[in-house]
Amino acid sequence: MSLSPNTMFIRKIILLVLCCTFVFGSLTCNAKTEKKALLIGISDYPECKYDSHSSWSKIHGTNDVELIENTLKKQGFNITKLLNSNATASKIRKSFQRFLAKISKGDIVYVHFSGHGQPVEDFSGDEDDGWDEAIIPYDAMQVYKQGMYEGINHILDDELNMFVEKAREKAGPSGIVYIVVDACHAGSSYRSETVESDEYVRGSQRGFSSKGKKYIPRIDKRSKIRVSKSQFKSDVCVLEACRAYQSNSEIKESNKYYGPLSFYICKVLSNHPLGQNLKWTENVITLMNKDKRLIRQNAVIEASK
Fold first, then answer.
1. What is the distance, to the nearest Å, from the Cα of residue 170 to the centroid of all Cα atoms in its chain?
2. Which end of the chain, N or C, is more open, meaning fewer C-beta atoms within 10 Å of its C-beta?
3. Fold (topology level) of 35-277+288-303
4. How many other CB atoms are found less than 10 A from the CB of residue 114?
5. What is the pLDDT of residues 224-261, one digit of tens each?
């Protein structure tokens, strides 16, 4: 049966509308792709009230955040930041949840922590060496004291992993998640006599343990670690300032101290867009390896691609 000219014209209009709807819908989806960052930096930790000799030392995590914020703003990132007393465990955890709620499919996600780190005795049984790794919020103490501080404010790698996996799910296969940890888990919280007098080190070689268990680090010399890939989640890249058994020493540039990983990330990203291509992370590692001040540490990349 032949169609009348009017019917054919109507069908053409319908097809045209459908095509426009599809194209417009695709453009709208692409337009929703955003760049989102959560930056956490701590310099001045409070004194430990029950053991003044075990207070966290002064470092310069807020300097890192200032650098990173300026760099990412130039690339169009929407930034949330927590500094010093605003970076308590509860505020960090709440910020994680709020940040997750903002992530959409296809987003470029960047999360940065500059502060102290510490090994924590593992009670879940998922660590071969018997120790978890933790980032240290503003209100996490360095030593266990029954009834006063039992570790509730330490943010363990298990908790971070859950956050990362949720972020990967939210960003989806078309997005990417970056996690940067400019801390260490086996360094020294004091100025060691074996290093320059003005060197600041992030972390503690004292393990957090309710039993007084001595921390013996596991020696893992890998600089690259493969993370599982998923067809339903975004790729992920985790950058760490040093291996788990090493110290993370700050460096001095233009009379200011910075975490070395943060400093070189900013140096590379000043000329490189942060996106799906991970080549820029290799450039960061190369620059750190060339810095003679960092001969005692090696940065680590954990990535799914």
1. 17
2. N
3. Rossmann fold (3.40.50)
4. 33
5. 999 989 999 999 999 999 998 888 999 999 999 999 99
Beta-carbon contacts of residue 190 (< 8 Å; ≥ 6 apart): 57, 201
Spatial separation of the C-alpha atoms in residues 62 and 55, rounded to whole Å: 18
pLDDT digits (tens, 9 = 90+) for 73-84: 999 999 999 999
Statement: residue 91 has pLDDT above 80: yes
- How long, in residues, is the chain? 305
d(C-alpha 257, C-alpha 147), whole Å:
36
Return the domain boundaries, the chain.
35-277+288-303
| DSSP string across the chain | -PPPHHHHHHHHHHHHHHHHHHHHHHHHHHHT--EEEEEEE---PPP-TT-GGGPPPP--HHHHHHHHHHHHHHTT-EEEEEEGGG--HHHHHHHHHHHHHH--TT-EEEEEEES-EEEEE-SSS--TTSEEEEE--TT--SS-BTTTB-STT-EEHHHHHHHHHHHHHHH-TT-EEEEEEE--SSS-SS--TTS-TT--EES-SS-B-TT-PPP-------SEEEPPP-TTS-EEEEEESS-TTS-EE-EEETTEEE-HHHHHHHHHHTTS--SS--HHHHHHHHHHHH-GGGTT---EEEE--
